[in-house]
Each structure stands twice: as structure tokens, then as C-alpha cells.
Design brief:
Strand order of the largest sheet: 1-2
Largest sheet: 2 strands, antiparallel
Strand content: 5-15%
GO molecular function, one term: zinc ion binding
InterPro entries: Matrin/U1-like-C_Znf_C2H2, Znf622/Rei1/Reh1, Znf_C2H2_sf, Znf_C2H2_type
Shape: elongated
Bound molecules: zinc ion
Distance between the termini: 95 Å
Radius of gyration: 31 Å
Number of strands: 4
Family: Belongs to the REI1 family.
Keywords: Ribosome biogenesis
Protein name: REI1
Order of helices and strands: EEHHHEEHHH
Length: about 160
């Protein structure tokens, strides 16, 4: 610390009273005051500057985030309204229908793969409680199918 006048909060020194007074009005000083309340150490003017810049960039990003994208159709929209209109459009609904049926196919395929793999997996390296949890799941699955069976059974 140097100078006759100091700011204890920011741990800086000033050569004149005016400079010190001016400093008390800066955002940097206010920011450090808030940090002090939160029991955090003060940041230097440089760090504060960087934080401000980062904040600005984030604000720009947030603004960009308000523009919507339909990931299914891979289309970008400049406003939420445009996006909502697109969601209602037949074109989008067609794509969604196609997309979901394709997704379902993929899920079914993966399911088959998962069950195939599950048969051969050894759970010995799992912790005891996790093993038990898995057993419970399996049990529950069995119970479910048991109770569901009479419903799907066809009366002959
Ligand atoms: Zn200060
Ligand atoms: Zn779409």
C-alpha cells in the first residue's frame, strides 16, 4: 500500500484525498465492498476489469440465446415467435413424426444390445449396496411382468 490515503476494502493507496473520494464512487470499490460482506478477499483493478469484460460477453451470449433453434429441423430463428410458429407448422410436425419413429427404432435396437450385454456382465466389482439395488430392480421387473401377464393373456 502506498500514498497517504488508503482504501482498506480494496487495499489500495492514493496520493490525494480527491483520488480516494473518486475511488469510493467506482464500481470496482463497490464490488469489493460486496465481496467484503461475503467475506471474500478484494480483487485488484485489473481483475475487476476482466470480470466486467467477461460479464459483458456473457450478456451478449445470453442475448444470442434468446434466438431459438429447432434442433430437429436444424433451423435457426431470430425470435421466439418465429420459433413457436415453426413448432406449430405442418412441416415441423412431419419431421418430428419421422424423427421420433426413427428414434424409437434406435432405442429398440439399443435395448436389444443392452440386454445382450447385460447377460454376460459380471457385477462383482460393484459395491454391495449397489448390487442389492440392482437385484431389487430385477425383482421389481419380474413382479411387474407377472402381474401384467393376465392382462395380455388371450382368452381362448
Ligand atoms: Zn475501495
Ligand atoms: Zn422444426
Amino acid at each position: 500500500m502506498s500514498g497517504l490515503y488508503t482504501c482498506i476494502t480494496c487495499r489500495v493507496g492514493f496520493s490525494t484525498l480527491d483520488l480516494q473520494r473518486g475511488h469510493y464512487k467506482t464500481d470496482w470499490h463497490r464490488y469489493n465492498l460486496k465481496r467484503k460482506v461475503a467475506e471474500l478477499p478484494p480483487v485488484t483493478a485489473d481483475t475487476f476489469q476482466q470480470k466486467v469484460l467477461a460479464q459483458r460477453e456473457k450478456a451478449i451470449e445470453d442475448e444470442e440465446a434468446t434466438t431459438a433453434t429447432c434442433e430437429i429441423c436444424n433451423k435457426h430463428f431470430n425470435s421466439k415467435n418465429q420459433y413457436e410458429n415453426h413448432l406449430k407448422s405442418k412441416k415441423h410436425k412431419d419431421v418430428v413424426t419421422k424423427h421420433t419413429s426413427k428414434l424409437r427404432e434406435e432405442i429398440e435396437k439399443n435395448k436389444e444390445k443392452i440386454t445382450e450385454n447385460a447377460e454376460g456382465t459380471d457385477n462383482s466389482d460393484l459395491p454391495e449396496n449397489e448390487k442389492r439395488l440392482m437385484k431389487d430392480c430385477v425383482k421389481r421387473k419380474h413382479l411387474k411382468t407377472k402381474y401384467q401377464l393376465p392382462v395380455v393373456r388371450r382368452s381362448s
